[in-house]
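Question (not urgent): is this output format expected?
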Amino acid sequence: QIQLVESGGGLVQPGGSLRLSCVASGFTAGYTFMHYDMSWYRQAPGKEREFVASITNVYQTTEYADSVKGRFTISRDNWKSTVYLQMDRLEPEDTAVYYCFVRGPAVWGQGTQVTVSS
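Got this back:
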């Protein structure tokens, strides 16, 4: 079974930066981390979970939600089975629980809290 563990969340002031990490494990023979597209989602209190960013497996094509474009950067290290989300110029509206997601197996991480407040 595939497991995703997010980390790197915390409290930061507006305009600050955080880097989230998502470590994947539990892959079966023949299919490893590098085979899968990865995504970040977030969910703020009282709101539905929304897409943040995604990155494909080998070509590492990226996509971003309009709300974070130019401020967030998604990347991955296939040898470390890890996907990252670099968040710069954070705004209070970015406050949410951030979740890592594997598209193919449809597996979610447990989430990590990001709070942007002065």
